[in-house]
Amino acid sequence: MGSIIGAGAGLAKAEVKTLVVGEDCAGQRLDNFLLRELKGVPKAHVYRIIRSGEVRVNKGRAAADTRVEQGDLVRVPPVRLPGRVLDAAARPAPAREFPVLLEDEQLLAIDKPAGVAVHGGSGLSFGVIEQLRQARPQAKRLELVHRLDRETSGVLLVAKRRSALTRLQDQFRGRETGKTYLALVAGAWPANKKVIDLPLHKYLVAGEDGAAGERRVKVVDAGHPDAMRSITLVKVARRLGAFTLLEVTIKTGRTHQIRVHLASQGHPIAGDDKYGDFELNRSLQRQGLKRMFLHAWRLQFRHPATGEPVALEAPLPADLQQFADRHAQPTATPV
Questions:
Q1: Quick check: 78 and 16 in contact, CB under 8 A?
Q2: What pLDDT does residue 24 have?
Q3: What is the chain's mean pLDDT, rounded?
Q4: Of 85, 81, 68, whose CA–CA distance to 19 is shortest?
Q5: DSSP state of 147
Q6: What pLDDT does residue 212 have?
């Protein structure tokens, strides 16, 4: 069963909602505005009520890509919330703060721990952003600027204002940011292999009993109809016995890009449970590496308000640092 947003005692008394666009949402697409305001309503349903004309902006029909402005009146019909959303609402995310790397009126940069998703979904009722919103009820517009895989630790940006969100996301889309990760790979990475320029294709692995599939990515030929050009820069940071610690800078932000690119060269990331060496991973578990050795180490961008350059670094977490130290040779020196 579900519940009706805008309903009174029952469906017969359901009424429309009128939302007033605030300053923070000025310039936002109508679909994104509604997805933010109608939390939990399936995306497909939001697009259906827009297409049907049930959503009106200032009494007129509007398309999904219509830009709303401050003071606009958005008419929304009653919409049904799925039961799972109501269950989640009854059990809100636990409030949680995370180590802060930088904070001001525009943005919040945190050091995300491994094992925590950045947002709810795919069977998870909450992630970093939901926990932050619970911990900071006075912050009305906390939004993720970008994403990290659940098992990846490191620098994560959260916008505190809509204007900051759009300016920062424009930088990410325009490849104006510098994103460098630390990755430990199996084997001796060739020092002269510095660029991986291989197209990637995202697909779903069929789930069991009709369940939604799992996202996977693979390298494909440039002629593949769904090929996405993907560029990764690699620098050897340190030789660690049978492993190599790499500084990996991505010029494109594709799903699982680093993991797939490195594995395609015969050097999978230690502990990667999707694209890694599974026998090696079992051995690493016994040696104390309980997770994938991938860390968002450095992020460079321009401040959304001042335009000044900002460079953030998150040190290797203690578990990864300890594992690396155990494998360092007495003569090992930075390359």
A1: yes
A2: 74
A3: 87
A4: 68
A5: -
A6: 53
Q: What is the mean pLDDT of residues 250-257?
A: 93
Output the pLDDT for position 335.
Answer: 47
CA atoms of 167 and 163, how far apart (whole Å) = 6
Q: Give the span between the Cα atoms of 299 and 2, in whole angstroms.
A: 42
Tell me the Ramachandran region of residue 131: left when phi exceeds 0, alpha when psi lies from -120 to 50, beta otherwise: alpha
- Token pair 């959260």 is found at 158
Q: Are strands 143-144 and 153-159 parallel, antiparallel or unpaired?
A: antiparallel
- Report strand pairing: 294-302 vs 153-159: parallel
Cα 155 from Cα 177, distance rounded (Å): 13
How deeply is 207 buried, as exposed, middle or buried, from its count of CB atoms within 10 A (0-12, 13-18, 19+)? exposed
Tokens of 110: 């945190």
Q: By the 8 A CB rule, do 111 and 62 touch?
A: no
Residue 247: predicted pLDDT: 98
Rounded Cα distance, 132 and 186, in Å: 36
Confidence of residue 109 (pLDDT cuts 50, 70, 90): very high
Calpha distance 266→46 (Å, rounded): 44
To the nearest 10°, report the CA torsion of 32, 37, 43, 47.
-70
Total Cβ atoms within 10 A of residue 143? 19
**Predicted confidence (pLDDT) at residue 310 exceeds the cutoff of 70:** yes
Q: How far apart are CA 191 and CA 234, in angstroms?
A: 9
Question: Hey, which residues are catalytic here?
Answer: 149
Q: Distance between CA 182 and CA 268 in Å, rounded?
A: 13
Question: Measured between alpha carbons, how far is 46 from 41 in angstroms, rounded to an integer?
Answer: 7
- Please write the tens of the pLDDT for every residue from 6-65: 443 333 344 788 999 887 778 889 998 898 888 778 888 899 999 999 999 999 999 999
Task: Give residue 4's pLDDT.
Answer: 39
**62 neighbors 30 (Cβ within 8 angstroms):** yes
